[in-house]
Amino acid sequence: MPRWGYPQHDPAHLIFPCCSYLHTRPVMKNFSKAGFTYEVVPPSDATAALVCLYCRIRITAATDVVRVVLPYPGCQLMQLVSGSVLMNTKGNSSPISLSAALLGQPTMAATFRFAPGTELWFARMKQPVVKALTGTKKSWADRVLPLHTLPLYSTLPGTQNNTFASWVAAMESYAADVLQLFASHPRKDWILAAQQSVEQGCTTPAGSDYTNISLRQSQRLFRQYFEMSSRTAVMLHKLNRALDHYAATKHVSATGAAYEGGFADQAHFIKAFRHYSNTAPARFFRHYNLKR
Question: Does the predicted TM-score (pTM) go above 0.90?
Answer without folding.
Answer: no
